[in-house]
Structure formats: C-alpha cells, structure tokens
Task: structure prediction
Amino acid sequence: MSFEPLNTVTSRTLVLTPSNIDTDQIMPAKFLSMTTKAGLGEHVFANLRYDAQGNLTDHELNTDAGKACEILVAGHNFGCGSSREHAPWGLTDYGFRVVISSEIADIFRTNSLKNGLLPIVIEKGAHQWLLDHPGEDVTVDLNKCEVRLPKNGGTYSFDVDAFSRLCLMNGTDEMGYLAAQDDAIAEFEAAR
Amino acid sequence: MTKTLFDKVWERHIVVPEAAANPATIYIDLHLIHEVTSPQAFTELNNRGLKVRRPDRTLATIDHSTPTRVNADGSRPYVTPQAETQVETLLANTKAHGIETHGWESDNRGIVHVMGPELGATQPGMTIVCGDSHTSTHGAFGAIAFGIGTTQVGHVLATQCILMPKPKTMAINVNGKLPKGVTPKDVILHIIAEIGVGGGTGYALEYRGNVFEDMSMEGRMTVCNMSIEAGARCGMVAPDQITFDFLNGRKFVPEDFDAACEDWASLATDKGAVFDKEVSLRAEDIKPMVTYGTHPGMGIAIDAIIPGAADNAEQDALDYMQLSSGEKIAGTHVNKVFIGSCTNSRMEDLRAAAGIFKGKKVADNVTAIVVPGSVLIKALAEEEGLDKIFIAAGAQWREAGCSMCLGMNGDIGAPGDLVVSTSNRNFMGRQGPGVRTVLASPETAAASAVAGVITDPRTMESAA
Ligand code: SF4
Result:
C-alpha cells in the first residue's frame, strides 16, 4: 500500500486494444483466495499469458520489453466488473504505474488511486493514437496533469482529484494520511 | 435546521470535515471482517508495525470460503487447500490482534451480515463497514453501513477511520398496500427495476413510507441488502419500535437500553427535511418479481412477458440466459434452487420457503439446497422443525455460510444450469461458469423447486 512517489513517468507503452477488459480478465477469480499481494503480478492477465496447460504464451506481457513498460494503454471501459482490489495489486506488482484509456470503471479507478496506480482518462483522439502506436515512449506528468505523446503527437491534459494527486506525488498513501490524524481521532474518541 | 437520518448519523462521526483538498475523515463504530478481504490488510498492518486500534469495535467471522457440508469423519471438505488457508489465516490474524471471532466453534458463526444484527452489534446511529459490498444490509437498523475495499479494511483496522466524500441523499418512498403474496425481496427487485442498476450511484438511500414502516427487521434487511445493486453504497430505514424490539436482549446492546432507544428514535428524518432526490412508487403496482438478465436491474413481474433488449448488452444477457423476448418467464425449466445468502437466509425466509415445501416434493429435475445464514438460525429452524420439512420435500439442508451466492466454497451449478436463487447477484458465471441465475424471493424459489419450472408462488398453496 505504500509506494514510490509518482511525478513524471516516461516509458514505452504496452497496449491491450479490446474494450471492456473487466477485473476478472485482469485478475481471474481463482486468485482471490490468495492471502498475500506479493506475486500477484505473475497472475495479472493470466488468460493471455498462460495457455490451457499453464505454459507461458509468447504474449508481449511475458517479454522483457513488456515487463519494462510502466504505462498500460487499454481499450475503452477498462476495469469494469467486480470490485476486487486484486486487479490493481496485480498491475502494480507487475510494474505498471499508469493506465490510460478513454473510459475507466469507477471502482477500479478508486482502487487504483489507493494503490499507487494512476488511472488516466484521455480524449478519444489521443487514446486512438496510443492504441495505434504501441511501444512508443510516452510521458505522463502528474505535476501538470498532462500526457505528452512523442513525434509531435501532442500534449493532452487529464483530471485527477486534488487529494489523490497529492498522495501519489508524495508517495503517501491514505494510511499515512490517516495515521497522521491520530490526535484528532483520539480527541474524537475521548469526546463521546 | 431540518435534517435527514443520513445527515444526523454522518454528522455524529466527522473527525475531520471535508474540504476542497481532502475528503472527510469518518469514524467507524463497527468493523466486521471475514476471511476473503482481510488477509492483505493484516499483512499491511504487520509490515508497518501497526496495531489494531480498536479490537473491541471489530468483529470477525468465516463465511465465504467455508464448506456447507461436513465429512462423515467430521472433517470439512474445503474446495481448495487455498480456501482452507484463507480461513486459517483469518483465525490466526484475529487471534494475534485480540479480535472477537466467530469461528467453527461459535453458535453465532454465519454470514457476516447475518451475524452482526443477530449479536446486536449492529445498532441504530452507527457507522458500520466491512470488506463486502452487501454491508448495506445493516442500514435496516438506521446505521450508515457500506462496503469497503481491502486497503480501507487496513485503514479501519489501524485508525478506526476512513476517508470519504459525503454522498448525496435519496428518498425511496413506497406507500400503499402491498398485494397479497408480495415479499420484501419483490419490493427491492421492483425498486431496482424501476430506478436501474446505476440509479442510486452517488447516493445514500433512505427507504420511506408505510410499506417499510410496517416491514419486519428481516424484510428491511433484505431491502437494504440490495441497495448496492441499485448502485448505492448504503440504504437505510429509520429506527423505530420494530427495530428496538428486535435488538432488545441481544449480546452487544447498551446496558441502559431505554436511554439508547430514546436517542435512536431521535435519528429519524425531520419533518420537512429535503433529500437531493426523491423517488415515489406505489405498493399496489408491485408483484412477485424475478430477474431475466445478468444484472439485478433486469427484473420483471413473474407473470410478465420478457421484454425486448434495449441494447447489445441486454441482448447478450438474453442470449446468455437462453431466454427470448416476447415469451413468458414463468414456466422456464429449472435445474437448481438456492435458498440462502445475506439477502434471504433468516428465519422469516426459511419459514416462508418451508410453508411452500410442506407436504410437497422437489421436482425430479431440480436439486434444491437450503443454507441458513448462521449457526443460530440453523438451530432455531431445527427447533421449529423446518429442517424436517425441507428434507421430507427432498431439499438439502446445509451448514451456514455464503455457499452458492458466489460459489467461492465450491457450491456451484453446472454450466448451462438455470438456478433460481434468493441471493442478490445474477452476474454471468457468479454461481459457476455458464450458470444462469434468476433472482427471486424464497417463496418463488421454493415454488419453482416444487414445480420444476419458474412458478408464481401465488398459484401454489402455502402452509405458512
Ligand atoms: S451471502 Fe453472498 S452477498 Fe452475502 S456476504 Fe456472502 S457472498 Fe457476499
């Protein structure tokens, strides 16, 4: 739950084009009975990465180049379905810091922000450009809330709420923020 | 100033108010935990060297992964070794942190949302959270109760607080006289069909009107349970004499019970208080309901015709369900019937189902399982002889737990099976890969088990 501060990320993108990739595809239900988060990166997108016999496929996610990607670009409406937090855990354990799509499901978005993964909803044109140009170096600047595409692809702004942005930039998660309110909590308890 | 029930309870729990740069810090009175969404939170706590701030405000049980059968030798047939590890991990974590736990030996073990009210731990005016979206159930007592993710489970364990923006308020008014044979489950399925699965998103619901005022606590819990299926994280009913009578004498209620009741009674929404939104429905319009699609908003009256698909997603849902618009839903072949879950596994539900089953037989093409919500309910039902009615009818009488509601413990249907289920979610594959779920009341589920096809319970005699 604590994570590296996130200010500017420049990385090749890994692109998954289908729309409506739900949390069950990100992290299949059979991994929900895990009692740790460590290692969930090995199971993220398991159905793409392993064949029916459990052998690794040649999917980009299994390559060194893929594993070096910190930015995931995904088709419309990413992260729909169940609220399992195992989905963002798997993505961050794999090494992603940013997910970009033209729409990202609400609960997944909230869960991501709590786990050091920045979900970015970007305008359709830029999203299409990203889908069409896998593996390009893209810069995400949380300070300015903008995504910069290479090759004069342009600069696009995105929204993130002030509190989540501050937490991401400082690498403080909400636990740290709440723990710092200990006095106020003790006072509240004493007063009732 | 006039205030709503939600506002009054919310204001009592603000530790740090909401501002432009931060959400509100809200104090949590009761934290319920179970085996599925807590292990990573405990690991986080241990990694940071943190303690559980208020073990006395934390209550644990095991329900999701627990087998509902016992082997002849007394051992438990866990679906996977991992499921057993998950249960063992919870027991070890709560022991290490001094948290009261209703494990295998407890008479109160059961579905977490059945256990809280049963122990009187759920009380009016409280804030209650649990790593489970159906925590909304506890709103039936006039509490603000909602589901949280595992990260937040960690927050509450460590600080007894969570961060959240204040939701808007919505009144759902249902007034009038419910037709005979219409149950609380039908009322909430009707509400969701009317306002849609996203209709409550961003709102805290308050169920108002004489229909809810006259409803039992069991019924109110059934209604509040499914608030989340309308997109609302919580739903509430104002505490009243019915609430107080339910709580009186239970383990955790305040010593000065009369004073507590007086305070609780003051929580009701003030006359003239304004909600951000109001929806009003007529009780007379509600019939026994079933779902025909793959989300709880796709519900119709049991004697209705399956409507046409509004979009591709609805057509996909119909295809998945192997149902065609223009046809009657009643009469559809049934393979399994599940009576249980935090929506409908309490005494009132079991009595209603037993009323239908009494003196009848489950159809040859149907496997029916009845899973009580808690060990206590199981004992009470056996005291009343309900188990004998189920067994004589040919239904299975199981140990308490979540069971087939989400099938995590291995209680699932076979691909293609049509399951009439008293639970709350009919998502694709929730009750097993390829399983088609039809949500309904215990009466409708029992009637369908007996007839072997989806059946209007009003057409069947009941001994209840
Ligand atoms: S019965 Fe179903 S909905 Fe209720 S807590 Fe268990 S799994 Fe969740």
Remarks:
- Chain A has one domain: 8-191.
- The interface with chain B takes residues 1-2, 32-37, 82-83, 85, 89, 106, 110-111, 114-115, 162-163, 166, 173-175, 177-179, 181-182, 184-185, 188-189 of chain A (CB under 8 Å).
- The pocket of iron/sulfur cluster is lined by residues B 63-64, 111-113, 132, 134, 341-342, 402, 405-406, 423-424 (CB under 6 Å).
